[in-house]
Please model this.
Amino acid sequence: MLVRTAASGICHSDLHVIEGGLPVPPPCILGHEPAGVVEAVGEGVGDFAPGDHVIGCLTAWCGVCRFCTGGRPYLCPWQFAGRPDGSKFRLTAANGDPIMQFANLSSFAEKMLCPERSLVKIRDDMPLDRASLIGCGVTTGLGAVLNTVRVPAGSSVAVVGCGGVGLAAIQGARIVGAGRIVAVDTQPWKLELARALGATECVDASAGDPVAKVQALTGGGADFAFECIGLVPTVQQVIGMTGRGGTAVLVGVVPITQLAPISPADVVLQEKRIVGSYMGSNRFRFDMPRYVDFYLDGRLKLDEMISSRIGLDEVNAAFDQMRKGAAARQVIVFD
Ligand SMILES: NC(=O)c1ccc[n+]([C@@H]2O[C@H](COP(=O)([O-])OP(=O)(O)OC[C@H]3O[C@@H](n4cnc5c(N)ncnc54)[C@H](O)[C@@H]3O)[C@@H](O)[C@H]2O)c1
Ligand SMILES: [Zn+2]
Ligand SMILES: [Zn+2]
Model:
């Protein structure tokens, strides 16, 4: 399917690839948080027509493997399979050399050629720049709360890292009716934004170890604590701020070569759970249209999450902003 990219959010996972924390062989066109409009459909495509508004998702699924049929299509290995043996690369340089397509999408480009099972059709009245955020960060953060651990109403929640993913997790906690929602970040302005999106308390992690502060705010530790950065020290912090019988949810991607020492006795004697959450445990053709509805009915706030709209030529400056923690979500818009 050929899709004209209308907008692409910039996710920290793109930066992980640039910095080597996620292994993807160069040359590669990054970008995996897109919304756009279908331009053309290939032979055998039945679910879409030109003009459809779509969101792209990196968890393409096959529909027949044990993960798909078992109800967890986001774990389908087909998303990593690439093109069938012997078929042409989707992207090539001017001299014909192959260019890697990232996550079957490569949304830092005016057009994307993707499999139909990377896409979901959405309502025409959804603005496409805001829809793009749902392609990765919002689905990851909301889904960690709604799908992976299904936070019950009234639970205490801590979210460490208030970027695109963490702010979505905070909103998920608000939407399900969590009790205390504690936001943790090193940037005071991010904490103010987190409060506007649903956090009931804020902890500035630049002012000393946040673990004891979160324990004090949650009566001994949170029922659910989400790591939304991808650093070893903050992984250790979320396990520490998870309370007796609580669940630590690892959402941030720690560079694959790094290991995190933890205290097994702390986990066992307090019966803590440590859970990984991949792409918000999504069934994206089900989840993304309902997240669009959440936005259009006012429950999910996306306008506030966009700190800047930029052109494609400003993408490297946008990564510098991300390294400094100076942006919430930056969105590339294409005319
Ligand atoms: N599990 C998944 O499927 C999945 C999907 C998408 C993204 N991710 C990962 O989630 C992580 C977050 O992505 P993002 O796009 O929201 O990143 P981001 O860069 O926008 O946000 C990170 C936030 O962490 C804050 N921060 C940095 N160091 C801190 C510290 N020591 N203590 C407290 N706060 C700190 C920053 O100020 C920033 O607000 C990345 O590792 C990304 O790769 C995972
Ligand atoms: Zn992402
Ligand atoms: Zn499958």
